[in-house]
Amino acid sequence: MNLHIFPTKREMGVAAAERTAQWLNAAIAARGVANLILATGASQFEMLENLVQQDVDWSKVTVFHLDEYIGLPETHPASFRKYLKERFADQVPALRMFHYVNGEAADPTAECVRLGEIIAAHPIDVACIGIGENGHLAFNDPPADFETEAPYIVVHLDEACRRQQLGEGWFLTFDDVPMQAISMSIRQIMKSAAIVCTVPDARKAQAVKGAVEGPVTNLHPSSILQQHPQCALFLDEPAAALLHR
Question: Is 194 inside any structural domain?
Fold first, then answer.
C-alpha cells in the first residue's frame, strides 16, 4: 500500500484522478480498452470532479460501480446510480459502457448473478474506492465475507454504516436509510489490477489507521488492502492524523 497525504481534499482529489488516468491510459495502450470501478459517497467528490477532466479516451472505457441500495428509486437523492450519472457518466458522454447495479430489480440475487457474469468478462484495470467510517469496503460491513468468490452479493447494512449515510446528508432520518444493498464482494475488489483509494476527513481517521496499521481482519474490512500489490491510498491531512509516520 502506497500512502499519499495532501494538505487539502482538492489536492488529494487531483492526485487520485491523475493516478487513475495514468493506469487507465496504460491499459488502453496495452489492450485497446480499459475497465474501471467507481465508488460513490462524499469521499469521491473531489476525485470524480477531476477524473472527468483527465485526458482519457473514454470511448474505450467500461465502468462498473460498487454498490447500490435495494429498493431505493433512482430518483432518490441517495441513489448511487443518480450520483454516478450526474457526476461522471453525463460528464463523459463518449463512455463505452456503464454497467449499473439495479437496486430496484425484482430479484436482487438474480441481479447479482447478472452483474457477475458481465464483470467476469471484463478484468478490472483500476478500482476507485473509499473506506467507510466502520472500515468497510463497498457495503461489506464488518465482519465482512473475505471468502466468497461471487462478484456481487446481497448484504445487510450495519448501524454504523447507516448512521454514516445519515450523517453525510443523504437521508432525512435514520429510518429512511435502507437496511440492505447489493455490493461488490471483497474478493472481486481485490482482483483489480490497481486500486486508487481516496479517503478525506477527520471522521475517517480511525478507519484509516485500522486499514493501514492494524491487523488484516474481516472485522476491519479495508485492512485487506494491505495485501494488494498495487494499491495507492490518497488521504488529506485530517484523515491521516492518527497514523504513525
Answer: yes
